[in-house]
């Protein structure tokens, strides 16, 4: 076990004195702090595994860090299958490790299966009988699903356009993965030190919270969309007793973001292998370092802020491996002269960070194996040829206690599929929601923005969110006759819209899209990197329902 909680002394965020919270793990009291997730409590107390798989009894702990992979399931207050990375602790929580498949208890306590079953039954009844008793039906002109850069931009644009907006966010606070904030309970005096472009984000966050036409629902998950009716439930992640309720909207903006894409390699299911996003989420959001000697590998510029976050919690990053060659990366970033200069200062800052902490950046290298008995103890890295095949004889063994990997991102498409939206191929080769020139999907009244329409980063997400929010408000505030005339225009669906935003510095969505397409994203040459015997995580980071089949 190598993960640890960063000491408060010297923390650049200047985290305040925590409030102690009484919780137990497997019957033993442990040290816990208000605002921590269950995963953070376990990691800070020397536990990096707390579940075993159903068939092969292999150890599992946290992997994706954002609730997508189902590896970190744990039993809380008698209720199994709680995602430890998503659940924030409460006083007197009873946390129990989960060996194999665990059935809920049959007691009538608040954490029992009885309460959970009631929720399922109520959900089924609600679909047939309309509004759920006790919660009622909400009505909004525009519903925005997601609180990241695209969702925040969409909400502000729709509100400014005159619509009443309801933002539904599974997080405890706006920001999403990109602008992840520390919990309020941490009382950080300098959270800006953990975030690039903090001032701009803080202004957006404050404007959203004070906007007279925007209502924000945190800790609220959307589990189905039927036409323009959104089904949601509010409460702690995976807790029993959450009651579903319906939201009837005139327009819906989907801004659900994305999750890490990971390529399998021998040993990748060992405890101590994390996605790059998990490492950053734990560092930025919980001040947890996943290891003391950490290897970061994958592709794309996201690896740089991950390394920065790891350094910020005291980890030693032994190397940063970029699978693309230096020639490929240079070619990508030189493809758009308008955007490349805007990232120059940020790139120089990352370069200085790597130099200051003596972190080698190797282009054309990646990790091909992880080694260890019950935890990562070493990694084998290798140089890649132009087709991403390991070059024989270039292999090196590196002693590490954690490996963080990320080969781009995959869009969270579940809700778009539920809404009946057409799914096409995005600019990076992955699946994406098809949208027209106004960010509207093939489902009338449903708009999409951000990573759903193609992986492109925060700048593109914000631009698309602004457009989607504006057009969603227009759709919500116009008449049915207007909609019929617009539909007769036969706008073509695409995954790379072309819009111009005055003062944006680039040619709107299209300009930002061109830059990120060439900016070192994932090259789809996986064949040489997927050997046999890759372990039990094949298919990891799929949808929540399909991930459950992993054994």
From TrEMBL:
Record's keyword terms, sorted: Oxidoreductase
UniProt-listed InterPro entries: 2Fe-2S-bd_N, 2Fe-2S_ferredoxin-like_sf, FAD/NAD-bd_sf, FAD/NAD-binding_dom, Metab_Enz_Cyan_OpOx_G3PDH
Domain FAD/NAD(P)-binding intervals: 141-457
Pfam family, one: Pyr_redox_2
Protein name listed in UniProt: Thioredoxin reductase
